[in-house]
Design a protein that fits this description.
This protein is mostly helical. It has three helices and no strands. The mean pLDDT is 96.
């Protein structure tokens, strides 16, 4: 997967932070992408935390 594909997926998952299964998918995707795209993952985990905590 390239960075834009991961970004699109994370964007879509951000809207469903109330659903535990989606949160798990979000976390798995972040974990998988973190080594290759650390800044992208850092940004999205911050967006997620700001929106849902």
């Amino acid at each position: 997967m390239d960075e834009k594909e991961i970004e699109r997926l994370l964007d879509g998952l951000l809207d469903y932070g109330y659903d535990n299964e989606v949160v798990e998918l979000f976390n798995q995707l972040c974990h998988t992408a973190e080594e290759r795209y650390p800044q992208l993952v850092k940004d999205y985990t911050r967006y997620f935390a700001n929106q849902w905590t």
